[in-house]
Every structure is written in structure tokens, then in C-alpha cells.
Design goal:
With about 650 residues, this protein is an alpha/beta fold. The protein has 27 helices and 13 strands. The chain binds one RNA strand of 77 nucleotides through helix 10, strand 8, strand 9, helix 17 and strand 13.
Length: about 650
RNA sequence: GCCCUCAUAGCUCAACUGGAUAGAGCAGCGCACUUCUAAUGCGCAGGUUGUAGGUUCGAGUCCUACUGGGGGUACCA
């Protein structure tokens, strides 16, 4: 049962006497921020002032007069300008919490209208190593899939792999010119990665050599301007005026620093090749590598047998590579239909759009011009190649025909919002207006310096290395012998390994999901594996404590459930914990409404904290009264189930001891 | 240039979509271990929510302008 919706129903019934849209008005029910105002507050009296032309407190009184909540709440109170404060009865909380023990859905009720959602997430480019940038889409998409399923909706997950792009042109080119056959036979993926990196650095080298002089000039100019602006600012007498100029000169300085950074970055790319005489010689022999790579890609797309054979040979290895990461992270897809799958459909898509008069030639390319957009969606380049807009349209049509989804979520970087705005604008024009399309966008992962996370070489930090680092850091932090010394029996090596793995991987997922998806967030390995604060270790510890109590009493969750002892809340810590446990459905509703798993993280952290307070104040086995003992034990079990289930919905496992 | 997005405590982030005195954590200071794991709990301190206006019973949240960060902007994805 969901408390908030139950109260909303009651509220709506009371409002039916006053307004003709009671259900809508009843939505203005919120949990209170301050326990002094009870547990929930109805805020609908104030806004009704105009509509009913009466003072809000009077309206509130009328609502309260009709409000039938005596079975759930104490007498409602009207406070301030017209808030209606509701305080749940302790006996009701106890009964509801007791019911939780026998409910595998933990209070979640089947939806009135189950939806079918197709979630498109992760979607890495294969053939290059997965990096930290893929983490957000993967982790958020997986958590959303788990949450929507738990809420009773039908979910189809699809990994729209980038398996047909320029990166294959790069490794095909690399293979043709630089392959080490022995290395390829021995470890194909490693060799392909080496080839990818080599070709990439050669392309970067040539473009950096060209770009460097202008970047230097720009950096110098900006530097001078910034210096001048700072000087000028110092000479200004008027204080306010000086402050304003200072601000502007600071901005200029930052821009100058960024330009200088860019020069350093370019120089780095040049140095990377020039430091190695062999590589430099190779660079000299492959001056047109950038366009040659595009040609290899184009040949692949046009069905060139040699390139197609190479692609067929490379792809399984590339898939093994990413599947290893998914396996590690316990992430699964119903479908993996990459770009290559849609490639044969693209000419037909363009043809149809042209025939329908939606697309037309412009500057040699085939474009869909849309009102409200400056630039068109280009679906075929002047050289005949197709673009991701084309693929996305083909994908949309295919999904519509094969998956009967009523909603499609694209868990993709915020930077692509323009693209999705266009895609979603085209959809109704091609008869797909019935699909609810949603760009579930997310922000960038930043390093500790506030810049997008990169390694020192300028490449994106590799994902597997990151996971290894997290597991190692978790081992150091969580399996510190001083801390685990009191565990009896002592932790075995296998148990330590498992704890480090669960906490390490969990830390990465948790830190990502803890931030609202739309904001950028600062990635700090040290903070995410920390034991204090809003971290996965804190939740794991709370969970481990619940298990510790069961062990101490030589009992199990099943035994406690079968005993059917009622929960009754007396102490504040018991009440507040029990109420928190009843709110999982509310938290999940929020996740679904915003497509934002962070709401579940906040909820779980809040619940774990309340459990910790309970744990400190309400001993189980030392309680004198057997009824109190049984009630607290039942609360412990309910907590353990909520935390385990909640973390599971985030894709995170639990450990029994730590 | 135009469009999108962000700006909240020293730091990292919340704030249930317009509700009451803006909350957590970290860092700092203090208190509590004979324990079902102190990997915890409690307390103190920390804020003109970037600036200036506006909308209304009520604004961190909405509108306008400005300042600053990030991103995008016709053939990469």
C-alpha cells in the first residue's frame, strides 16, 4: 500500500464537496519537512482561495470536516495560512509495517495501467575500450529497468550498440597496415585495441600539427588580453566599477587558461608520436590517414567483401570484450540490436521520407527541415553515407513494428538533446505519434578538478581499470584487518574478496545513481568507497547489522516471518523507522515520475540512517519484554528486506558481514 | 551570433516539481563504547540559494534582464 495515495484518495473524497476536480486538487499532498507538522500535509486549501472566494483556513476547515481518516490518522490540524497536517496513528503504522513482512512487493501495488517501456541504454561504441563515459547510461538505464519492472510494468531493454561506425574504419585500416599477426592470434581484443589507439593517435597527431599554430596564437592573444584587463582593473578608482572589471578579467584569465590547456593537449598529441622515432616515421608515411580511414568505413558500408570479412571477424571479439564488463556489473539486455542491424533498412527509410515529401535535397544532402529548428536533420550525406539520425529513425520504425511498446526511453547524454528533439519532432510525421518518446538525459562525469574525467594521456579513463581500482580501494577501506578483527569467525579470504567486489562495484554504481541524473557530478574514488556519509558502504553496514542481529539470535528471516509477531511502535526510533519502511512505494513512484533513480538512493540512505538510530536506541535481544523483542526483531527483518530489495533495484548486491 | 543547461554552507550534493524556520554528508570542534559490529549515534558551528527586478497568500523552484560556468549549433555519434 502506498500511504500518500491512500491519503490522496481520502482527501479527494473530502474535496468532492468543494470542487469538480477533486483528484487533481488532492495531488497537493506532501510529506512534511518538519515532524512538528505531522507526517503529511495537504496544501490544497490556499490555492483554492481564488476559486472559492473564501479565506484558506475556512476552506481547510471545510475539507477537514469531510475528511474521513480516523482509521489512519489523529485528528487533522489546520496550521499557518491553511495547511492541513496529518499525523499517522502509531497502531496503524505498526499494523502496516507488520503486513510488510508477508509482502514480497514491499507495499508496491500493481499499476492501474501497466505500461510497456522500451529502454535504450548503455549503447557503447564497440571496438574501442569502454570508458567511464559509458557508466552513467549503463547504470541509470539498468536501475530504471529494474525499478519499472518492480513497479509492475513491462520492460524491454535494448543495447543499441555502435558497431558500424568510424571506429571500424580505424581498426580495419590499422589491421591492414600495422597488425602484429602473432599478437592478434594470441589476444585479438588487445591487439585490436592497440591498433585502434595507434590509428587514433596518428590521426590526432596530424590534426594537432595543423591546429597547433593557431591555438598558440589564440592562447597568446587571450593571455595578453587577460593581463591588460587585470592591469586596467587595478587602475580603476571606483570600487564597484573595479569589482566589475575584476570579474571580467577573471573570466578572461580562465578563458586564457583554457586556451593554454588546449595548446598543452595538442602538444601532448604531437609529442606522443614524436617521442617515438618509429611511430614518427609511420606518421610520415600515413599523412592522409584521416580520410583513408573514412574511406575504409565507406567501403565497409558499401559492402566491400574484404572489409566486411574483417568486420565479421572483429565483431565477436569486440562483443566478448563488452560482455565481460556487463557480466562483471551484472547487467543484462533483452536485445542487443546495434547500428549494423539497421544498416540494410536505411536506404528504404530515406526513400520513404523523400516520397512522403518530408525530406528533400539541400546542398547535396538529404534533409528533413523542421519548424522551430535552425538546422535540418540530415539523413544522408552528400557522399551518400547515412547518419545516426537515419539509423535512429529506422530503429524507431523497427521498434514500433516489433515491440508494441507505448513508451521508449533513450538513456543518453544531455549533449544529444538537440538530436532527440528533432527525432521526436519527426516521429509524429511518420505515423509514430502514438509512441511516448523520452530523452532520459544525464550530465557529464567530471574529475576531481571539475573537468570531464580523463587519464593523464588525455584518453578517457578505461572502465575496467576503474572497476579494478574501486575493488582495490574497497579492499583497503572495508577489509582493514583492524576493523574486521572482531568478526567471529574471522573473514575468509574468499569472503574478503567478495566483500571488496560487492562494495567496489556497488560504490561506482551508487555514487553515480546518488546524483540527480541531469547534473554533472564529480567522480571521486576515495569518497565513493568511504565508510562514512552517503556511500554504499554505509548502507551495506546497516544491512550487515541487521544480519548480525539474526545471527546473534540464531534465527533467520524466514523464522521471524513465520512467527508472525506484530510490530508495535513505541519509541521514536521505532516509529520513524517503521514509517520509512512503508515509504518504499512512494520513493519508487518518484523514480518512475522523473526517470531518476536518485530518488531511491536518497530514500535508502534516509532509511538506513533511521535504522542506525534504531539500532543504537532499541536493542533487540536485551529488551526485557518478549513482545518488544519480537516486534523489534520483525522491524529488523523488514528493514533488511527493504534495504536488500532497494539496493537490488539499483543493481547492487549485499554482504552479510563486513 | 543563436539555442540548451547549470550557479544553494569552506567542499560534495539534496530539497517530492510553488509550501511553513532551505536540509544531508565531508572537513572542523565537543560528547557517548562493559555493545545484537563505535565502520555508529548525539550536539555545536557553518546560508542575503550568482546579481537586479517581477509574478502571488507564499519563490531555491515560474518570468525578464544581467554576470559567470558547461554543452550544442548542415553532412561524427
Amino acid at each position: 500500500m502506498q500511504i500518500a495515495s491512500l491519503l490522496k484518495q481520502r482527501l479527494a473524497a473530502a474535496l468532492a464537496h468543494l470542487v469538480d476536480d477533486p483528484d487533481e486538487v488532492a495531488q497537493m499532498l506532501r510529506p512534511t519537512q518538519d515532524p512538528r507538522f505531522g507526517d503529511y500535509q495537504a496544501n490544497c486549501a490556499m490555492p483554492l482561495k481564488q476559486r472559492l472566494n473564501r479565506p484558506p483556513r475556512e476552506i481547510a476547515q471545510q475539507i477537514v470536516d469531510h475528511l474521513q481518516v480516523a482509521d489512519l490518522c489523529h485528528e487533522p490540524e489546520i496550521a499557518g495560512p491553511g495547511f492541513i497536517n496529518l499525523r499517522l496513528r502509531d497502531d496503524w503504522i505498526g499494523e502496516a509495517a507488520t503486513a510488510l513482512l508477508d509482502d514480497s512487493a514491499l507495499g508496491v501495488e500493481p499499476p492501474e495501467q501497466p505500461r510497456t517501456l522500451l529502454i535504450d541504454f548503455s549503447s557503447p561504441n564497440v571496438a574501442k575500450p569502454m570508458h567511464v563515459g559509458h557508466i552513467r547510461s549503463t547504470v541509470i538505464g539498468d536501475a530504471l529497468a529494474r525499478c519499472f519492472r518492480f513497479l509492475g510494468h513491462r520492460v524491454i531493454t535494448d543495447n543499441h550498440l555502435g558497431d558500424w561506425g568510424t571506429q571500424f574504419g580505424m581498426i580495419i585500416y590499422g589491421y591492414k597496415h600495422f597488425v602484429d599477426q602473432a599478437a592478434f592470434e594470441a589476444a585479438p581484443v588487445a591487439e585490436l585495441v592497440r591498433l585502434y589507439r595507434m590509428v587514433n593517435s596518428l590521426i590526432d597527431y596530424h590534426s594537432a600539427v595543423v591546429a597547433l599554430p593557431e591555438a598558440r596564437t589564440t592562447a597568446e592573444t587571450l593571455r595578453e588580453e587577460a593581463d591588460q584587463a587585470r592591469q586596467a582593473a587595478q587602475d580603476i578608482e571606483d570600487k564597484a566599477e573595479r569589482k566589475r572589471h575584476k570579474k571580467q578579467s577573471d573570466a578572461l584569465s580562465r578563458r586564457a587558461a583554457a586556451a593554454a590547456d588546449k595548446v598543452v593537449g595538442l602538444q601532448h598529441k604531437v609529442d606522443a608520436v614524436e617521442a617515438d622515432d618509429t611511430l614518427l616515421a609511420v606518421a610520415g608515411q600515413h599523412t592522409t590517414i584521416a580520410t583513408d580511414v573514412l574511406n575504409e568505413t565507406a567501403k565497409l558500408h558499401q559492402g566491400d567483401p574484404e572489409n566486411r570479412a574483417l568486420w565479421d571477424r572483429f565483431l565477436p571479439h569486440c562483443q566478448d570484450e563488452i560482455n565481460r564488463v556487463y557480466q562483471r556489473l551484472d547487467i543484462h539486455f533483452d536485445h542487443t540490436l546495434g547500428e549494423s542491424f539497421y544498416h540494410p533498412m536505411l536506404p528504404g527509410v530515406v526513400q520513404e521520407l523523400k516520397e512522403a515529401g518530408l525530406a528533400r535535397d539541400s546542398e547535396g544532402a538529404v534533409c528533413i527541415f523542421l519548424p522551430d529548428f535552425d538546422a535540418p536533420m540530415i539523413i544522408q550525406k552528400k557522399d551518400g553515407a547515412f547518419l545516426y539520425g537515419t539509423t535512429d529513425l529506422a530503429t524507431l520504425k523497427y521498434r514500433n513494428e516489433h515491440f508494441a511498446a507505448d513508451e521508449i526511453l533513450y538513456v543518453v547524454d544531455s549533449r544529444q538533446s538537440d538530436h532527440f528533439d528533432k527525432l521526436f519532432a519527426v516521429a509524429p510525421l511518420i505515423g509514430l505519434g502514438h509512441l511516448r518518446l523520452r530523452h532520459v538525459n544525464f550530465g557529464t562525469v567530471l574529475g576531481e578538478d571539475g573537468k570531464p574525467l580523463k587519464t593523464r594521456s588525455g584518453n578517457n579513463a578505461g572502465l575496467e581499470g576503474l572497476l579494478d581500482d574501486a575493488v582495490a580501494a574497497a579492499m583497503d577501506a572495508v577489509c582493514d584487518p583492524d576493523r574486521t578483527a572482531k568478526l567471529d569467525p574471522p573473514l575468509s579470504e574468499a569472503e574478503r574478496q567478495r566483500i571488496a567486489r560487492v562494495i567496489g562495484h556497488g560504490a561506482i554504481k551508487y555514487a553515480d545513481l546518488a546524483h540527480h541524473r541531469t547534473s554533472d557530478y564529480r567522480f571521486s574514488l576515495q569518497k565513493m568507497v568511504a565508510l562514512e556519509g552517503n556511500t554504499v558502504a554505509y548502507l551495506q553496514y546497516a544491512y550487515a547489522r541487521t544480519q548480525g542481529i539474526l545471527r546473534a539470535g540464531q534465527t533467520s528471516e524466514d523464522d521471524v516471518r513465520k512467527a508472525e509477531h506484530p510490530i508495535s511502535v513505541a519509541a521514536d526510533a521505532e516509529r520513524s523507522l517503521a514509517l520509512a519502511l512503508l515509504r518504499l512505494p512512494e520513493a519508487l513512484q518518484q523514480v518512475a515520475d522523473d526517470y531518476a533513480p536518485s530518488a531511491l538512493v536518497d530514500y535508502l540512505y534516509e532509511t538506513a540512517r533511521k535504522y542506525m538510530v534504531f539500532n543504537d536506541n532499541c536493542p533487540v535481544w536485551k529488551a526485557d519484554d518478549p513482545a518488544v523483542q519480537a516486534s523489534r526483531l520483525a522491524l529488523v527483518v523488514a528493514t533488511s528486506r527493504v534495504i536488500r530489495t532497494g539496493l537490488g533495484l539499483l543493481g547492487i548486491e549485499v554482504v552479510e558481514r563486513m
